[in-house]
Amino acid sequence: MRKLAIRSAATGTILATLMGLSIAADPPAVLPPPKPLDEPRKLRTELEALAAERDAMAKDLAEPPGTASERAKLRAQLLELVKRVGEKKMAPAAPPMPPPTRVGKEPPVAPPPVPKFTPDDSTKPVDAVRAGQNYFRSGDVDAALRTFKLIDTNALPKEDRAFVQYMTACCLRKTNKLSEAAAIFREVADHKDDEFLAEYAVWQLSTMKSIQELETNLEQLRSRRKSK
């Protein structure tokens, strides 16, 4: 029995050894190799497309809107338009409109050319009055004064007579002949042949009096300063 047990143990040991050798003899499991790329051309195309898109975006960010060719085209069109406008003849501008006048008031009329008037002329008194007015408006007060003095006021209506006297007094005042001017102004104001001119004559006398009083006061002040 003892021999049988030893023989069984030996047989088990041998079997175990043989089984171990059999397991060790089997080759280890090997992973399958990685699959090669099936479509390398497709991948390359996608990469190239991404690179092209990136370059296009960078170009859009770097350049202002509109390409160089478009800007050159617009510049050429603008130059052509400027050239065409410069060659076009402009129509003459319309004359300026006169300023509006008040209702019931005639627009101012430029004075006519001053006619020559001498004592030897057989000119009518009305023409002489007009000549004196023209001299006065043009600033030739001396010629106006001579013309008004040559007019025979007896041949004129009372309104025209008052006008000639009033204008004569205005000429005397402008030539600094104040005493003679005041006498004629006073005559026009007293006779009242023309109510309108009579009121103006009174105003002229009041203005002359105020100016004379002011000059007198100024002279007194100058005298006082000199005496101090």
Description:
The chain is an all-alpha fold and 228 residues long. Among the domains are: 46-83, no CATH class; 125-227, Serine Threonine Protein Phosphatase 5, Tetratricopeptide repeat (Alpha Horseshoe). Helix content is 68%, strand content 0%. Helix 6 runs antiparallel to helix 7. It starts with a helix and ends with a helix. Keywords: Signal. Residues 1-24 form the signal peptide.
Summarize the structure.
This protein is an all-alpha fold. The protein is built from eight helices and no strands.
CATH fold topology of the domain at 125-227: Serine Threonine Protein Phosphatase 5, Tetratricopeptide repeat
Rg over CA atoms: 62 Å
Number of strands: 0
The residue fraction in helices comes out at: 55-70%
Number of contiguous helices: 8
Major sheet: none
Describe the global form. Answer: elongated
Uncertain residue segments: 2-6, 21-26, 61-65, 88-106, 109-123
Overall mean pLDDT stands at: 68
CATH class of the domain at 125-227: Mainly Alpha
Query: β content, as a range?
Result: under 5%
Signal peptide: 1-24
Protein name: Tetratricopeptide repeat protein
InterPro entries: TPR-like_helical_dom_sf
Keywords: Signal
